[in-house]
Amino acid sequence: MPRVLVTGNYAAGRTLAMAGEANRRGLGCAAGAYPITPQTEIVEVLSAFDFTKGRVVPVESEHSAMAVCIGAALAGARAFTASSANGLAYMTENVFAAGYYRLPIVLIAVNRTLGPPWNIWVDQGDSLALRDAAWIQFYTESHQDLVDTILLAFRVAEDRRIHLPVLVAMDGFVISHTQMPVDLPTQDEVDRYLPLGNVPHRLRTDHPATVGGLTWPRETAHMRHEIQEAMDRVPAVLAEAIDAFEAVFGRRPGGPLVTLHTDDADTIVIGCNTIVRTLRRIIEARRGTGERIGMINCRMFRPFPREALRRAVASARRVAVLDRNHSPGSGGIFWQEVAASLRGRSDLLLQNYVVGLGGGDVTPDVIDRVLADLSGRTREAEPVWEEVAL
Amino acid sequence: MIEMTIHGRGGQGGVTLAKLIATSYFLRGGFTQAFGVYAAERSGAPLAAFVRIDSEEILNHNQVRTPDHVIVLDRTLIGPNIAFGMKEGGWIILNAPEPPEAFAKQFGGRRVAAIDATSLALVHSLGTKSVPIVNTAMLGAVLKVLGEPWEAAAAALSDLKFGGANVEVAREAFDKVRRVLLTGKPHAAAPPAERPPPLDILDERIGAPSPIRTGSWATRSPHRRQMLSPCSNACPAGNDIQGFVRALNESDPDEALAILLESSPLPGVCGRVCPAPCMNACNRTLFDEPVQIRELERFAAEHGRRPDAIQPGRDERIAVVGSGPAGLSAAYHLARLGYRVTIYEGGSELGGLLRTGIPAYRLPPDVLDRDIDFILSHGVTVERDRYVDRAQLLDLSHRYNAVFVGTGLQQVRSMDLGAADGDRVLEGIDFLDRVRHGDLSLAGERVIVIGGGNTAIDAARSALRAGAKKVRILYRRSRAQMPAIAEEITEALEEGVVIEELVAPLHVRRGPRVPDGEQAETLLTCVRMRLGPRDAGGRMTAVEMVTEDSRFDVACDRVILALGQGSDLSILPEGAEIRDRDHLLGLSGAPIYLGGDFATNDGTVAAAIGSGRRAAWQIHKTLTGENLRPAELPRVAGYEHMHMHVFTQAPARHAAHRDARQRRRTFEEVRLGLAESEGPAEAGRCLSCGVCNECDRCVTHCPEGILRRDGDGYRFDYDYCKGCGICAAQCPRGVIYMAEL
């Protein structure tokens, strides 16, 4: 497993390509590809890869990029693509189709602010707008986390108990364009980790069928419920995928939640993406001075790990949720999910902080300000906006 | 953890430098991080990149705020606030031609290193002149300053596949970088200017310019220049062709005529007989077909109202000898300058060759009269039938303050064809003048015209109109070499004139007496020619053929010689010396200037007009010291300056012609001019090459909105212009150009 100094985009592109190449003895792979800042390097890396059985299909829009993935997946191929911001918004109709078709497609979302106003920097509003599309969603904190989660994503998506597409998000620029050391897998390792792709309802000439035709309400509700049941199985299947990952790669990626010092913490901060790395240093430092403080990295957003979260904050009296996203008229989107999960915890002060919108640089100072605000609170308030300059 | 901030401009390779530095530590087992601050910005914009180096995993992902070391890639970005937030003891590493000591004022008390990476990059052709890529040179300097071995730099370069010049500049910088601890006490650097509070999207102030002066990103900037349109450049009379055509396009024939009359008093004449070098130069020629400028000049002369004439207001008197186009032009321009002008004409009518040498079917006498009347209305007096010889010229120079001589080509070039009686052999110029007066009939005759110039064509066509049965032109070269105006040749052929190419006359003799007592026919012995090598002037020569049948006789009734004319220098006083072809030295009287064909033999009306105008300036300068001659010519807008994709092809509107069968026996004018509605339409085909006509295309296409109308011109806001060049690429006529900063 070679360690290289590369950008997040390069790491993601190579990992996607190797996952596709790993299906060369099966039905091959395909990627619909359309560039957008800050995702473009992924498309470049995919396009430069020499697939044994598979191809990158350049298209005229993100909508068509996902359409290519849907077609390829319905034919049984391993399918993947990547996009950002308004590209994801334009892709949306087919993102839903891929989810409801139950196709194990992997989509890399390089998080970028939806415009207008025009902005190319990180903000999770683009991928979180797809939360209801029947996709599993992961948010990654580092280059290594990104690479490992992409491999987990294929494994979970293609599991016969799941058959749902997976979105893997990274911070635009902060990960996508930053060079950091990462252990990239070898093709041999990926071959060993990923079984050949399997789409049971794929279209076959020897067994003609219609997929996704007209249904009555009862059939529709039934299929929706099946999706919920598959979502419910994700934590268990993910745990198996992590075990298998460790067996091949010798290291253990995180699960739905990654906790730090939560067991006896009375204050817990919840976040995701690169913000949790800055947070981690601060938590460790404050622990060193005796503060009973802990943190949770919420890696998986769909299905939302409600039960695990309830357990993780059992000891806490104050919980802060940091959201680099915002749902106008409500608040931070992770906060909404956390609040729904912790209903009934009347002993708990749960406060939402909206930080780093539009790519604001979340420095340790910002987090210190959040913690100071939290410790001074006597009751919950509406989400607090931290204005951060780029 | 060591943190570094790199300040550079887009295109200089700052992010790659961050990666090179990070790689040099990564390859030796360190944990590293390299990233830039990205924005939707183009080459030249100031930007920052960052490097972190640690012995354990790096968790921070925010931008570096308190760097250990600061690296500056661009000399123009060096300022006290680059040290803002810097930890103590770190290095400031500058790309600058100065030694580090030169920065004592800004960075007193700090450790500063400097290397002239720009020069190193330029010497090794890394990047462009405006944005040299300095990152590899800076890598060498940075690693040396930080105490790392050269091998660390070499390994990083090799890992990122940099070789050749990049390695050389890195090594040179590694060896040459100068380091110093500046004296003084470190003072806190000023924080970067704070941004104003964000605006509300519903705020009506939205739309104010950005507080970021994006003009500093530019490496080049747009500028405007007026060029000379190629038509105006080609006009020997100096007409502002683009200007008068534009006025016609704006349906203002009065203004069009006024513009023409600034330079030429003979628009009615030139609108008919000019060979129109302007149309050859017209950029539309390469696109579809030239704008019909000659017809437009005629149109302006016919439809425009002549302005009120200026009357003489000065005391100086000027004599003009000769009333051809050069003399008329000199008289006109001198009169407009206020001089009292007297024209001396040897004949009874004014106009010189325009009157005697150009047949009425090309130039009706009333058209010429109108132009001349306008000239005379400027208070110009005329002495008719006053032939001026050298004695009288000397006399004039003592009675006037200056004299202009424009007597044209009085010396007829002829050839001796041997014995011929009476009118059997005529000179073309004489023939045309006699035909004009109606005192020569060629009824039923076979006529031979010798020559290939305009006089030959005029003589041939006039012979037809004088009743000739058959007219043949013999020319020693081939048709392509004929100096006559091509259209005139075509019209002659349409009318039935026959052209025999590559034939030269040798001599005439009387044919055998015919029985019925009529005059015997004339036999012209000719020789066939072939084209030989080009002469010194680039013109094909004609060489006699020496085959058995190369000589032959042509039977005819009359031969007209049209071999050209030369200057008759006998008018010049003894002892006078011609200087610069245009004035005489060595005489005691007032200055004598020469012009027109007499001086230059350029052979066109337009050239004579230009010559007369220049002589008027010269005389004015001699008498007053004032120089009216325009300064050096601006650049000419060639096809390469134009952006032709903007234009659509459109066929020219041509003037109607009288039918050939109908016109060949009459001196009525052949060309009928453009119809009243067609003048402005044809003028609308003008591309206005090199001259801004305020089409606003630059304003519409400026993506930054920093270009706006300012009165009759345009203004660029260089504070915000990024130098994208779209305005220059969109300017249809090459007025806007980009210049490197």
Word description of this protein:
The complex is a heterodimer of chains A (390) and B (741). In chain A, 39% of the residues lie in helices and 19% in strands. In chain A, the strands form 3 sheets. Chain A has a 7-stranded mixed beta sheet with strand order 3-2-4-5-7-6-12. Chain A has 390 residues and is of the alpha/beta class. Chain A starts with a strand and ends with a strand. The relative contact order of chain A is 0.12. Chain B folds into 4 domains: 180 residues, Pyruvate-ferredoxin Oxidoreductase, domain 3 (3-Layer(aba) Sandwich), CATH 3.40.920.10; 119 residues, Fumarate Reductase Iron-sulfur Protein, Chain B, domain 2 (Orthogonal Bundle), CATH 1.10.1060; 152 residues, FAD/NAD(P)-binding domain, CATH 3.50.50.60; 151 residues, FAD/NAD(P)-binding domain (3-Layer(bba) Sandwich). Chain B has 25 helices and 29 strands. Chain B has a 7-stranded mixed beta sheet with strand order 2-3-1-4-5-6-7, with helices on one face. In chain B, helix 8 runs antiparallel to helix 9. Chain B starts with a strand and ends with a strand. At the A-B interface, strand 8 and helix 9 of A face helix 1 and strand 2 of B.
Summarize the helices and strands and which ones pair or pack.
The complex is a heterodimer of chains A (390) and B (741).
Chain A: E1 3-7, H1 8-21, E2 29-33, H2 40-48, E3 54-58, H3 62-74, E4 78-83, H4 85-100, E5 106-111, H5 125-128, E6 136-139, H6 143-157, E7 166-171, E8 179-183, H7 187-193, H8 217-249, E9 257-260, E10 267-271, H9 275-288, E11 293-298, E12 300-302, H10 306-312, E13 318-323, H11 333-341, E14 349-355, H12 364-375, E15 384-386
Parallel strand pairs in A: 2-3, 2-4, 4-5, 5-7, 6-7, 10-11, 10-13, 13-14, 14-15
Antiparallel strand pairs in A: 1-8, 6-12, 9-11
Helix pairs in contact in A: 1-2, 1-6, 3-4, 6-8, 10-11
Chain B: E1 2-9, H1 14-26, E2 31-36, E3 46-54, E4 69-72, E5 91-95, H2 104-107, E6 111-115, H3 117-123, H4 135-145, H5 150-159, H6 165-176, E7 178-181, E8 220-224, H7 230-234, H8 241-249, H9 253-263, H10 267-273, H11 277-281, H12 293-303, E9 317-321, H13 325-336, E10 340-344, H14 353-356, H15 365-376, E11 381-383, H16 390-399, E12 402-405, E13 411-412, E14 425-427, H17 428-437, E15 446-450, H18 454-465, E16 470-474, H19 486-494, E17 498-500, E18 503-510, E19 522-534, E20 540-544, E21 551-556, E22 558-561, E23 565-566, E24 577-579, E25 583-585, E26 592-594, H20 597-600, H21 605-624, H22 660-663, H23 678-683, H24 697-701, E27 707-710, E28 713-716, H25 726-730, E29 736-740
Helix pairs in contact in B: 1-4, 1-5, 4-5, 4-6, 5-6, 8-9, 8-12, 9-12, 10-12, 13-21, 17-18
